[in-house]
Amino acid sequence: MSAESTASAFEGERKRLTGVAYRMLGRWSEAEDAVQDAYLRWQAADHGAIRTPAAWLTTTVVRLCIDRMRRAKAAREIYVGPWLPEPVLTPEGGERRDEDAESFAHDLSMGLMLVLERLGPEERAAFILREAFDSSYGDIAAALGKNETAVRQLVSRARERVKAERPRFRVAPGAHEKLLTQLLSAVQTQDTNALANLLTKDATFISDAGGKRSAALRVVSGAEEIAKLVIHITSSGGVPREIRQIDVNGAAGVWIIDHRGFDNVLQIESDGAHITGIYVSRNPDKLAHLKLN
Question: What pTM was computed for the model?
Answer without folding.
Answer: 0.88
